[in-house]
Write a structure and sequence with these properties.
alpha/beta; two-stranded antiparallel sheet; about 10% strand; five-stranded mixed beta sheet; 9 strands; about 550 residues
């Protein structure tokens, strides 16, 4: 998959180093990440699992976000061990490593006779995949969609590199390669559940490769076993934690089916972006191109998924036309410049993943690997269209150019980097707390404030009696235990809130027999949010 020519090989290796470093620089140029999810749970979840706070705090993150913290932990440890700028640079470098895997996929898929043109084409589609509006919005940001993508693309590389073995090799070799691909994508699902959409694509895409059906079925089946194993290795331990604590291994999700007494019998899924009709589903790529907020909380623009959508729908018709052509191909000019095994697999995997994404989420960020893969799919599909080679090149280049010039990134929230190399990624300074061993902190409302908790003395429990997860009138065990803990606390109460969300405290605290004096609030110094305050609460005289 690397060119045999020494000079070309050195160019490719230089790209493998240079492009990720470029994305490290892009990360620094975009500013430090301060996204909502980071402030809400990514930072806190790592701290909570490292310090055994699952039984100490309750609902500290304001959405139902008892997510697997396995991926949060290494990032939290790295971000606390080094200054913000080096951490942000390295995060961008890691995200830029998607270029390497996309290049390997492209070099296996595209089949150009000129080695220099082959390298150029593979590098071009890989790079265009990384500079989409959706992906650039995530560079240097802690969401992990462009981190777990490394496992997804790694699984695809394993399958494309094993094409001959999967089709004609011995059963042990073929099944072991399928299992390895499944294991990799299973790791991704274990680390971030929405990656399940790509597990479907990677696994069932094997049903569409050339070969006897029984062989394809067994390869897909074993790949599925690998997915289960990978998911169990990285996600199973957390599912067990949630089961033992809340009687729901996905707590609180799918509680309409699992029926844990700790939450309402609801799904808790975010269905805001799911298409509301068949017409909306069929036109969603067009809607996203016209208005990124059709599938995202932030505005952005990108045509990559739209381009792949149109070209892939047209390609079966183009293949039919190609078969019907009677013109001579003796000069081989009409022979496809693409590996058909790779095209069939990648197209099937992408289409299946997209279909599952459309039915389960509709949230664009979860489909970022499809955005990154789209330029390769477009180039590979056009390569089998029944037009001359130069027209194929011109059409593919024009489509890629259109993707580049029409894309624009959004922002999930950025702040200036701390001056100097000593600045912390998360920097919180709290007012002095006199008696932490006898203090309980409450949070109310919908602001993402859990990132402050690691700065509190460890003896202080944090409870949030009002959020998307819980409200005082919810008939759940979670609510019962939370109320009982507040009622049993005999020490001091403090409240952490943003200055603009006092209404939540005024609405909720009286039901717990508490109130606060706005004059007793002191500002919290925090780089991720400059509007937080720590307030003293007192028992109401006439609750």
């Amino acid at each position: 998959m690397l060119p045999e020519d020494g000079a070309l090989r050195r160019i490719v290796l230089a790209l493998f180093v240079g492009v990720p470093l470029l994305f490290g620089v892009i990360s620094l140029g975009l500013g430090q990440d301060a996204n909502w999810d980071l402030r809400n749970y990514h930072w806190y979840d790592a701290y909570a699992v490292l310090n055994g706070r699952l039984d100490v705090d309750m609902g500290a993150a304001q959405t139902p976000t008892y997510y697997n913290p396995t991926l949060d932990v290494p990032f939290y440890l790295a971000a606390t061990a080094m200054p913000a700028k080096p951490f942000g640079f390295l995060l961008g470098v890691l995200q830029g490593c998607n270029f390497i895997l996309l290049y390997l996929l492209a070099s296996r898929t595209l089949r150009l006779s000129d080695p220099r043109l082959q390298v150029l084409a593979a590098a071009l589609v890989a790079f265009v995949g990384l500079i989409g509006g959706g992906h650039l919005s995530l560079v240097g940001a802690i969401f992990y969609d462009n981190i777990v993508s490394l496992f997804v693309f790694g699984a695809m590389v394993v399958i494309l590199r094993s094409a001959a073995v999967l089709q004609h090799g011995s059963w042990p070799k073929a099944l072991s390669r399928a299992a390895l691909a499944g294991l990799l994508v299973g790791f991704a699902v274990g680390l971030k559940l929405p990656t399940q959409i790509f597990a479907v694509g990677v696994c069932f895409g094997l049903l569409f490769i050339p070969g006897p059906f029984l062989r394809r079925f067994l390869l897909s089946f074993v790949c599925g076993l690998g997915i289960i194993a990978g998911f169990a290795l990285l996600g199973g331990w957390w599912m067990w934690e949630l089961w033992t604590h809340f009687a729901n291994p996905l707590f609180p999700y799918f509680n309409d089916v699992i029926r844990s007494p700790w939450a309402l019998p609801e799904s808790y899924r975010d269905s805001r972006f799911l298409p509301k009709s068949l017409g909306a589903a069929l036109t969603l790529p067009f809607q996203i191109f016209l208005d990124g907020k059709a599938a995202s909380e932030i505005p952005f623009r990108d045509a990559r998924i739209l381009g792949a959508y149109i070209v892939m729908l047209a390609t079966p018709i183009m293949l039919l036309v190609r078969r019907m052509k009677t013109a001579s191909v003796a000069d081989n000019d009409d022979a496809p410049s693409v590996d058909m095994f790779a095209l069939r697999y990648l197209a099937a995997a992408a289409a299946l993943s997209y279909a599952v994404w459309l039915g389960l989420f509709g949230i664009y960020r979860y489909a970022i690997p499809l955005e990154m893969l789209a330029p390769l799919l477009v180039g590979a599909c056009v390569a089998v269209w029944p037009v001359g080679r130069m027209r194929q090149f011109s059409l593919a280049f024009g489509l890629l150019g259109f993707m580049v010039v029409t894309s624009s990134a959004g922002t999930w929230g950025r702040i200036p980097w701390a001056s100097g190399l000593g600045g912390k990624f998360v920097d919180v300074t709290l007012p002095p707390i006199a008696n932490p061993a006898q203090t309980m902190v409450l949070m109310t409302g919908f602001a993402p404030t859990a990132f402050v908790i690691p700065a509190l003395p460890p003896a202080i429990p944090v409870l949030r009696p009002y959020s998307f997860l819980v409200e005082p009138d919810h008939p759940t065990r979670f609510n019962d235990v939370l109320k009982a803990r507040v009622a049993a606390h005999t020490g001091e109460f403090l409240l952490i809130q943003p200055v603009w969300e006092k209404w939540a405290a005024e609405k909720i605290l009286p039901g717990f027999g508490l109130e606060f004096d706005p004059a007793g609030c002191q500002p919290i110094q925090a780089n991720l949010d400059t509007e937080l305050e720590l307030c003293t609460l007192r028992r109401r005289v006439n609750p």
